[in-house]
Amino acid sequence: MKRMFASVFSVLSIFLINVGYAQVEIRIVDVGAGHAAVVKGPNDFYMVYDTGTWTNQAEYGENYAMSAIEEIIPKDQPIDLLVMSHAHSDHTESTVQILQDYQVKKIIRTGYRPDRKAQTNIGDRKWESMDALIRKMAENKELEDINLSQITIDQQQTYTEGNLPEWIGQTLMYADNQIEVKILSGFGSPLPSWEADLKAANEDSNSYRMNMSSIVIRLEYMPGDTRPGDGQSVLFMGDALGRFFDDDAQTVRFTEKLLIDRFGCEPWDTDCYNYLTSSVLIMGHHGAANASAKTFIENVRPQYAIAPSGHSHDHPAKSSMNHMLDFFITQYGTQEEALKHIYRTDIGDDERLRSSTNAKGQTKYFGVYEWDLGRIDGHRDEPGDNDVYIVMPEDGSIHVSQDGRN
Ligand SMILES: [Zn+2]
Q1: Host H or E run for residue 207
Q2: Region 257-282: what's the mean pLDDT?
Q3: 239 CA to middle of ligand 1, Å?
Q4: Which of 33, 280, 360, 378 would be 312's cystine partner, CB 3.0–4.6 Å?
Q5: What percentage of the chain reaches a pLDDT higher than 90?
Q6: CATH of the domain at 212
């Protein structure tokens, strides 16, 4: 049924494109355990948010992110905006190749380098050469490099929830003002209050620090003049965090708390429109159990959620997906209806296949915390087969599908 709708829609959209019908198309590429999103808009607007994971080429001999970019963006067209949510190598695979193959006008990145000691994989070790290339291109005026760790390096440590840098809330307009991109969060290093939270929890983790500093943006197509939410919108979270694994459902911390404090509405204020409310939520940190706090989801109030997950790390997590499901049940009545609003890039994945045994002979099993609804016994979901498509036509509607091409 869904498939039939998709194919009718697809034929229709090709026809409409031919007669000059404008729309924004976003593809969340199934790169497995990583993230890449490619955006095409009217007036030849192109944006890439995260560029895939280093394991794709190494393990599969295929760079799924780059293939999608090449399919969507003609080589002679410049890329208006390249955002790297943070420096982890599951988000940066194709950056160097993009810079070699395309003209990129502007790049926004945290500049927060992976800890040298923790650079355990090839992808992380490539960060230094990628950084050097971007700096060199910026020096040669080949692109604009917005490196958040460089802009205010002296003041960085003084930022608090009440004293945020000027790029928070900054708006970039594209496609003759039809596309608004707003930077909602992003830091060269974590806020002092987040550090205190980590310390109190005995969580001295560089991975947490890099993730929580992720650049969060909201893209709205055909925004109104007076308030956000007139057009359809997508919230890109990167690996932003909102809780610790064992927090209760109501607790919200880190990036998600900052977003609520800075951009959210009071829960009782149903008339409030803000820059957090979004039609589609690309769930933070691959749908992991340290993001997607219940309170945060209630602030975003999405119509659709997408978990960019793969066969790794128990993503998406049961707790996060249940928060999502609970929210959609309150909106759409039944679990069956609610599930029509949740998408993932690793359909049916079963991580219980994985285990590892340490030197002491203790075996750790995976998949315990992974969402088990829709799990297919023994299915190891590979990258490349579950891209998610968001289409926002100029009539103000929005369509999310798993097979936009079929
Ligand atoms: Zn990641």
Answers
A1: helix 206-212
A2: 85
A3: 5
A4: 33
A5: 70
A6: 3.60.15.10
- Distance from residue 90's CA to the centre of ligand 1 (Å): 5
Round to whole Å and give the CA distance between 288 and 300. Answer: 17
Residue 296: what residue type? F
Write the pLDDT tens digit of every residue in 341-373: 999 999 999 998 777 888 888 887 788 899 999
- Which pLDDT tens digit goes with each residue over 204-259? 888 999 999 999 999 999 997 766 778 999 999 999 999 999 898 889 999 999 99
What is the Å distance from ligand 1's center to 286 Cα? 6
Burial letters 195-220, b for 16+ CB under 10 A, else e: bebbeeeeeeeeebbbbbbbbbbbbb
Q: Calculate how far, in angstroms, residue 14's C-alpha sits from the geometric centre of ligand 1.
A: 33
326: which DSSP letter? H
**Distance (Å) from CA 379 to ligand 1 centroid:** 22
pLDDT tens-digit readout, 126-173: 888 999 999 999 999 999 999 998 875 455 556 777 788 888 999 999
Distance 177 CA to ligand 1 centre (A): 31
If you measure from the C-alpha of residue 396 to the centroid of ligand 1, how many angstroms do you get, rounded to a whole number?
31
Q: Residue 324 region, left (φ>0) first, then alpha (ψ -120 to 50), else beta?
A: alpha
Instruction: Say what the pTM is.
Output: 0.91
Task: Please tell me whether residue 184 adopts helix, strand or coil conformation.
Answer: strand
- The rounded radius of gyration (Å) of the Cα atoms in the chain is 20
Centroid of ligand 1 to alpha carbon of 65 (angstroms): 14
Q: How far is the CA of 34 from the centre of ligand 1 (A)?
A: 5
Q: Is residue 251 part of a domain?
A: yes
Q: Structurally, how many domains does the chain consist of?
A: 1
Distance between Cα 270 and ligand 1 center (Å):
33
Neighbours of 390 (CB within 10 A): 25
Is the bond into 114 cis (omega within 30 degrees of 0)? no
Q: How far is the CA of 338 from the centre of ligand 1 (A)?
A: 26
Report the separation in Å between the CA atom of 333 and the middle of ligand 1, taken as the mean of its atom positions: 32
Domain that holds residue 320: 2-151+158-401
| Res. 114 pLDDT band, cuts 50 70 90 | confident
Whether 406 is in a domain gets the answer no
Q: How far is the CA of 215 from the centre of ligand 1 (A)?
A: 12
43: enclosing H helix or E strand: none
